[in-house]
Amino acid sequence: MSNVRNLDLQLAEQIQHRIDDKTKPLGALGDLEVLARQLVLIFSQRMDVEQFATTRFAINNPQLVVFAGDHGIAAHGVSIAPSEVTGQMVANFANGGSAINVLCRQFDWQLSVVDCGILHAPEPKLGVISQRLGRRTASFTTAAAMSDEQLEQGLAYGKQLVETKLAYNCNLLAFGEMGIGNTSSAAAIFSALSGLAPEHTVGRGTGVSDDVHTKKRRLIEQALLFHSAQLNTALDILRCLGGFEICQMVGAMLAAAQQQKAIVVDGFIATAAAMLTIEMEPASRDYMIFAHNSGEQGHAKMLTYLQVKPLLNLGLRLGEGTGAALCLPILQSALAIYNDMASFSQAQVTDVVSA
User: Fold this and answer.
1) Domain ranges across the chain
2) 116, 180, 121, 127: which is closest to 151 by C-alpha?
3) Which residues neighbour 333 within 8 Å (Cβ) at sequence distance 6 or greater?
4) What is d(CA 16, CA 278) in angstroms, rounded to the nearest whole number?
5) Is CATH 1.10.1610.10 what the domain over 12-58+335-347 is classified as, yes or no?
6) In CATH, 63-333 is 1.10.287.70
7) Is residue 152 among the annotated active site residues?
8) How many whole angstroms separate alpha carbon 247 and alpha carbon 241?
């Protein structure tokens, strides 16, 4: 696929020493120290020692992309909202009225909205990026969600979009989503990758009733059985069970990791895309920061499966990239501590750790 490289660790010891030498007990800033190490490692790739020593590390032009797509599975009534809501919410994003717009303005993210294939294409005047693969995926209960051609084009679209963002000196990308029915797709992907039964991966999405939750689980069980002979690779799983927005998100994550940029992974659907990305390119995990543990039932199990620790746990289950957006000040704080916090010798404080 994209030949993602693992992080080069030649500067890791120097980075860790600088963190440990700050005026604090060893490890006292907890996960903020882990985050600082990961970010500096990512941002220092391809630097020589001299350049590394004189660089002040910062997040440049952070980009948050919301991918939107409609799902054939939604026609079975697996959500409290009809598919038409996807297009309505895309218009809301374009007009600046959603939660993700508010958070991006609050934290200075550059926000882009992508139509990956929704029932009703937005009006051109709204400024939504058009990367349509169709009006919606097929219902994955009785057919592959997308064709080989749609899969290939979707991955290419995601890659191309990232390349346009990186042309503006961006070193941090976050990805969100919108699509009625996409928690069904994400749960099916998780079951296919992990072997967990749908009863452990299927949640309530937008807040469905017990009856709808049961129907949703049974439809995913049906889909996994129907496609069982074909779910051999991550690409097979994506083609059979994925969504147009998930497909383009995977392409974007692969491209960002290939270019050694930091990736902020949002919630349940974005983590499904990350799981597929890691399955295709295991080294891509090095570049991923997992934003939060969402309120969707299967998300904590996804994070456990990946053996990663999220930054936040706020019970969010909105999607849109909202959890990822909230992480930016935490990422900036980790770098500020790395750049600006005094060492024991600079502050003339006794280093009780090394003494």
Assistant:
1) 12-58+335-347, 63-333
2) 116
3) 32
4) 26
5) yes
6) no
7) no
8) 10
SS3 288: strand
- pLDDT, averaged across the chain: 95
Instruction: Extract the tokens encoding 254.
Output: 């692969």
321-336: per-residue pLDDT in tens? Answer: 999 999 999 999 999 9
> What would the two tokens of residue 175 be?
């990805």
Q: List phi, psi (to 5°) of 312.
A: -125, 155
Q: What is the pLDDT of residues 266-322, one digit of tens each?
A: 999 999 999 999 999 999 999 999 999 999 989 999 999 999 999 999 999 999 999
pTM above 0.90, yes or no: yes
Residues 247, 116 contacting (CB under 8 angstroms): yes
Amino acid at 238: L
pLDDT, tens only, 126-183: 999 999 999 999 999 999 999 999 999 999 999 999 999 999 999 999 999 999 999 9
Answer for the pair 99, 324: CB distance below 8 angstroms, yes or no: no
Edge-to-edge strand list for the sheet holding 129-130: 129-130, 110-117, 63-69, 172-178, 262-265, 288-290
Pair of tokens at residue 352: 């009780």
Task: Measure the CA–CA gap between 134 and 126, rounded to whole angstroms.
Answer: 19
Residue type for position 86: T
Q: Which two tokens stand for residue 22?
A: 């700050």
DSSP letter, residue 96: T
Q: Which of 326, 269, 14, 1 lies closest to 151, judged by CA?
A: 1
Specify the amino acid at residue 173.
L
- Among residues 177, 245, 281, 320, the one annotated as catalytic is 320
H or E segment to which residue 110 belongs: strand 110-117
pLDDT band at 98 (very low <50, low <70, confident <90, very high): very high
User: Tokens 């600046």 map to which residue?
Assistant: 96
SS3 283: helix
DSSP reduced 3-state for 112: strand
Directed axis angle between helix 244-258 and helix 148-166, to 10°? Answer: 50
Residues forming a β-bridge with 286: none
Measured between alpha carbons, how far is 179 from 117 in angstroms, rounded to an integer? 10
